[in-house]
Design brief:
Shape: globular
Helix content: 55-70%
Number of helices: 9
Radius of gyration: 18 Å
Structural class: mainly alpha
Number of strands: 2
Largest sheet: 2 strands, antiparallel
Strand order of the largest sheet: 1-2
Distance between the termini: 37 Å
């Protein structure tokens, strides 16, 4: 996150608590990956907190290298596959699903490209304007970056679930602002914005607004999937 290690760790703790709460409201296995997004972003923010510690000399260079790899692995490698796949798992059979399948394929190719670049090309990180900038000769390819955005945001915008489309639109807005305001540290700033927006995912699961069986509606029967005893106690 921008500003400091403390800000990243605090963000990780808050978003992690939201992530655990989100999982308590998952009713169907196919929604699990999308519901896990806040928790994954919490771990991601924690990794960037470690990067901050490394860049300010509070942990050693080996720990810094590992933390940088973990942050960029999720931000650049996993995310372009995770997002379209999470949307695809919740999508009913329709023309939208075919397009999301194609975007998931693009995301898989981007994921492979990024992971290859992170493993075989040297990555650098540095503090620029109170944010962390990440540099890699292969993953910074402009054409691949466009495919990254297409896979990551395109699947959200194509979803049959209108709340997921709203999440996608807000991510596009955040992405645009991050690109304009913090181009040098784009990955750091946009990932924080996406993590903050994951609060929206919690609210939708809590309110039952994301229902795999009934897109844009609510099933009459609330089916607990994770932590059923916890949900029964609350009912």
């Amino acid at each position: 996150m921008c500003f400091s290690a403390t800000a990243s760790f605090v963000a990780s703790g808050v978003i992690g608590a939201i992530g655990l709460a989100t999982l308590c409201h998952v009713r169907e296995p196919r929604a699990l990956l999308f519901a896990a997004v806040p928790l994954l972003f919490a771990a991601h923010q924690f990794a960037e907190g470690l990067v901050w510690l490394g860049l300010t000399g509070r942990i050693g260079p080996v720990a810094l290298d590992h933390s940088t790899f973990l942050f960029t692995l999720y931000a650049q490698g996993i995310l372009p596959l995770l997002m379209p796949l999470a949307v695809l798992l919740m999508e009913p059979p329709c023309h939208r699903r075919k397009a999301i399948v194609a975007l998931t394929g693009i995301g898989a190719l981007v994921c492979a490209w990024m992971i290859y670049g992170l493993i075989f090309f040297e990555s650098h990180c540095l503090i620029e304007q109170n944010s962390i900038a990440y540099r890699n000769a292969l993953t910074g390819n402009f054409a691949v970056s466009l495919l990254y955005i297409l896979a990551t945001c395109g699947a959200l915008l194509l979803s049959s679930h209108h709340v997921i489309r709203w999440y996608g639109m807000l991510n596009v807005i955040a992405l645009t602002i991050a690109q304009i305001a913090k181009e040098a540290a784009f990955a750091s700033v946009w990932c924080f914005c996406a993590a903050a927006l994951s609060i929206m995912i919690y609210r939708q699961f809590r309110d039952g607004a994301i229902d795999v069986a009934t897109p844009n509606g609510r099933s009459a029967h609330r089916r607990p999937f994770l932590f059923p005893s916890l949900r029964n106690r609350r009912s």
